[in-house]
Structure formats: C-alpha cells, structure tokens
Give the backbone structure.
Amino acid sequence: MRRLPDASPRGKAITVDLEGETIPAIEGEPVACSLIAAGEAMFARSIKYHRPRGAYCFAAACSHCLMRVDGQPNIYTCRTPARDGMKLERQNAFPSAKVDVFATIDWFFPGGLDHHEMFAGVPIAEQVMAKVARQLAGLGLLPDREAPARPPPRTVRTKVAVVGGGAAGLAAARVLATQGTPFLLVEREARLGGRLLRGAPQAGDPAAADAASFPPGSVLTRAHALGLFDDEEGPFLVVGCQGPEGLQLSKVYAERFLLATGGHPPFLPFENNDLPGVYAGRAASQLLREHDVAPARAALVGWGEELYALARLLEARGSQVVALVDLRGPVPAGAPAGACVGAEPKAHGLQQVGAFSFTRDGRREKVSCEAVLVSIPLSPSFELARQGGAHVRFDPERGLFVVEAEADGRTASPKVFVAGDITGGGNAQEAAASGTRAAEALIGGLS
C-alpha cells in the first residue's frame, strides 16, 4: 500500500514516532492509515500464537490495529487521529514485533495449543505452566499515567434519537427535519455519509449530506452510541464523545429510537486470512476515497455488488487488480476483466501479504500482490437493537444474525425502529429507502 503520487494534499504534513522511527503522516487522518501509507503493515502480534497482526476493518471491530499510543495501551489506531509527535508502540512481542521469539509458539503447535490441558495433573510442571501462562496472558501493559477524571454525564432529551449517519440514517433525518420533528442524529465519524463517502460508489447511490443541512444542534459527530437502556425516566441511549476534557458521556432520552448502525466487516475463513495486508473491502475503499492510499497490486475475493464496485474504483485510481475471485458466482455482465468464479482462497507471506492463490476450474492459480481485499456483505450491528428489546435471529441462507423487522422498520419493541444494513444488507439506495419508511412510520406514534 502507498499514498498515490498524484493525490492532492488533504491536510497538514506531520510526523509520528513508531518505536524511534519517524513516519510521515497527515494531521487528523487515522494514524493506522499513516502507517500503512508508509509501508508499515504489521501493528502487533496476536495474543496466543503471536502471529503478525495488521489493520483489517477500519471500524474498530476487529482489534487487529491495537497499539500503545502515547503511553496508553490497546488504542484503536484505525480510529485515532494522527497528531504531530504522537508516539506509537507495537504490543505483545519480545524483543520486537518484527523479531518476536514467542512467534515460535505458532510454529511448534501447527495444530493448535490447548493451554487448559497442557501438563494438567503433572506435579510441578502444572504449577510452572500456570505461572508462565499468567505472565504471557493479556494484551498490553498498564498506562504510563493515571487517566484524568471524567466530566459528569449530561442529559439530553429529544423526540427521536437516530443512530448512524449513513444512507439510511441520513434519509430518516431528512424526513424528520422536513416534518419538524425534534431529533438527534448520532454519528461516530467526523462527517456524515457512511458508505456514501467511504464505500465503493455504485449506480443509484443517493447524495450524502453534511451536518449544516440539518437544524442546529440536531447532529452529533465523533460520537459513539454505547448502549440502550431503561431507568425510571424511560429508555435512553448512552453516547460517548471525546472532548477536550476527556470522554463526555450523555444520556439521551427519546420517545423513539431509529437505529441505522450498519454492520461490521466480517472475516472470511481462509488460510492466512489474518496476515497484515488482508483488508476488508470497505476499509480499502475508505483508505482510497478519503486518504488516497491504495495497493499497487491487489487481489479481490468475496461476492456481491460491492466486490465489483471496489474493483472498478481501484482500477480507476491506477491500482492493478491481479485477481477478482467471486466465491459464489456467477460473474455478472460488465464485470472487470479477469473476474472469475473460484474457491479455496489463500494468502501467502511471512509477516505480510506477498501473494494470493485460489482454485479455478479445478486448478490452483497464484498471483503476486501486496494486498488481499475481502468484500462480502456486512455482519449487521444488531447489539443496540437487541438491548432495546428487538428480536434477533440467525439467517442461515446469508450466514448472518439480523434484526427481525417489518418493512417499515418496526421491531418487537414499539420504541425501536431499524433501517439499512442492520436488517441484513442491500445497496445504499435500498438503505436510504428503508430509512425513509422507518422515519415515516415512527412519526405517527409520537406524542
């Protein structure tokens, strides 16, 4: 991966420190992006087998990008804005992540290690093994300094709380604003838009919007919805915002909650799917569209509309797609050249991706590349909906847990409505339509 040479500057050029090495960065971009653009794909070692780890999802959903940042352990570098002089350290390795003696665990136990039964019942050896395990367990060391005191939580009251500012959430907010219904839109990114800004563009995508297009005070960005609970005053959303005084928590009381939280990029099970250089498709499109970072040679694997949209996006910006493997097929008409139906994908490399292989028509094929991009439907972020009383079921056909909802977003909880990817996927146009339906449905029940 590299920063495209023809890219216009997107901010102030700064540097960060990676274990004594100076790394160029752009102020405010995710520091994980800065490292990837500088050729640093390995961020840490895994907890048990000390396998190399690198950023995968860019959604703070996988823990592969956790690093020690300015003396604080286990920080999601995919969510942490780069700051001049920021100090970064890899974790869970000795003496270093690139040369980690504990990586031999992975080599000694290729079939897996059951540490619960190792030396169990063997005198002395059992006690020694327990002491060793206690020293190796966990991830990261204690912070260099004590955490500052948090400001007291604040209380916010509104008619409707909308969580998620992607295609579905924006469509819902437009309906609420048009009807004059008070609402608060909570979005964890700095800008509204979700996949409309960060995903691979597709035909028919609705337009994005910024916070200024909505009533003043109705949009909260860089805010995380942490939970949906009840107390004597009614249901409330717990929202966390990182402010100048630290984490600011808010209790957002509302009559209705419209959840358009999207989904998590799931892992696709194949050999070496955890190697640095394997990225979720949404992460790759975000790196390219927002930060002008892309691989020179990429292999794409997965299925669905976004797989082909991502290939077109990469090729339009000068990346070479050396393989495009659809694991389900058939390959649609108009697909990029070289697309095929395949099986048994595998990433190759010691500390990061260097090649990719797959089976086509019964024969193995192997291509050299610097990134393997996995594009499959998102796994719905159903957690808030379930906390709010909605029912969740497993869809065996799609292999996903989805929120049970009517066409207008109604769930088993009369106060919770859902829209977009949380209900099981679809393109941005379909997500926006579901957001519109849900907003129109919930307005009728407001007092």
Observations:
- The longest helix spans residues 428-443.
- The chain is about 20% helix and 30% strand.
- The longest strand covers residues 246-259.
- The mean pLDDT is 94.
